[in-house]
């Protein structure tokens, strides 16, 4: 798996759906210099674990907005599938009420660039294209800073839902570091003591 942390987030332009609107050319470039981005991938529309994650991001959308973070979802479904799912009530397995953009990676290129595409395409001995597994996205999540640099990534296998609390915690840690120059130890939470990046600062922290 590619490690994108510390690197420029792969650029893309694709169709997306936000609310009732289909966006013909959606790009993360619009957020550079303006917002942080949480870009998360999920396997499929109209499934079981996926809507629990999409609804959970929506439930906490105010938390992300307060931190200047734009949430963006992405799967290998089409924009029409996204639109239909967004128009299906929650009680019927839909995600009606989700307000953040959902990118349509129908050509699989975005998932491939972020190295979260499951399955594999190859050419057999007869020059036929063969597919091993299913070409859908793992549950990848990428925190991208205002300069367009990936600062955090995590990838779960398809049966394993993510933790939105951990996502918010890492955003808080990044923003604390940017604002104060202090590094954040394991399990650090907003409001906890952090550490200066020198021996004196570490010793001071550990003595508490």
Automatic annotation (TrEMBL):
<protein>
    <recommendedName>
        <fullName>Thioredoxin peroxidase</fullName>
    </recommendedName>
</protein>
<dbReference type="InterPro" id="IPR036249">
    <property type="entry name" value="Thioredoxin-like_sf"/>
</dbReference>
<dbReference type="Pfam" id="PF10417">
    <property type="entry name" value="1-cysPrx_C"/>
</dbReference>
<dbReference type="InterPro" id="IPR019479">
    <property type="entry name" value="Peroxiredoxin_C"/>
</dbReference>
<dbReference type="InterPro" id="IPR013766">
    <property type="entry name" value="Thioredoxin_domain"/>
</dbReference>
<dbReference type="InterPro" id="IPR024706">
    <property type="entry name" value="Peroxiredoxin_AhpC-typ"/>
</dbReference>
<comment type="function">
    <text>Thiol-specific peroxidase that catalyzes the reduction of hydrogen peroxide and organic hydroperoxides to water and alcohols, respectively. Plays a role in cell protection against oxidative stress by detoxifying peroxides.</text>
</comment>
<dbReference type="Pfam" id="PF00578">
    <property type="entry name" value="AhpC-TSA"/>
</dbReference>
<dbReference type="InterPro" id="IPR000866">
    <property type="entry name" value="AhpC/TSA"/>
</dbReference>
<keyword id="KW-0560">Oxidoreductase</keyword>
<feature type="domain" description="Thioredoxin">
    <location>
        <begin position="3"/>
        <end position="176"/>
    </location>
</feature>
<dbReference type="InterPro" id="IPR050217">
    <property type="entry name" value="Peroxiredoxin"/>
</dbReference>
<comment type="similarity">
    <text>Belongs to the peroxiredoxin family. AhpC/Prx1 subfamily.</text>
</comment>
């Amino acid at each position: 798996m590619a490690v994108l942390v510390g690197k420029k987030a792969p650029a893309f332009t694709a169709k997306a759906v936000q609310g009732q609107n289909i966006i013909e050319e959606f790009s993360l470039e619009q957020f550079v210099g303006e917002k942080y981005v949480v870009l998360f991938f999920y396997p499929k529309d109209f499934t079981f674990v996926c809507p629990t994650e999409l609804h959970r991001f929506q439930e906490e959308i105010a938390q992300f907005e307060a931190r200047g973070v734009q949430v963006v979802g992405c799967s290998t479904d089409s924009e029409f599938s996204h639109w239909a799912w967004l128009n299906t009530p929650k009680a019927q397995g839909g995600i009606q009420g989700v307000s953040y953009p959902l990118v349509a990676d129908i050509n699989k290129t975005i998932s491939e660039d972020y190295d979260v595409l499951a399955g594999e395409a190859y050419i057999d001995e007869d020059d036929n294209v063969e597919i091993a597994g299913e070409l859908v996205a793992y549950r990848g999540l990428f925190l991208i800073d205002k300069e367009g640099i990936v600062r955090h990534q995590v990838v779960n296998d398809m049966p394993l839902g993510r933790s939105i609390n951990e996502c918010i915690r890492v955003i808080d840690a990044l923003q604390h570091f940017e604002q104060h120059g202090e590094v954040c130890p394991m399990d650090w939470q907003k409001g906890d003591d952090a550490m200066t990046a020198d021996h004196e600062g570490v010793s001071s922290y550990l003595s508490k």
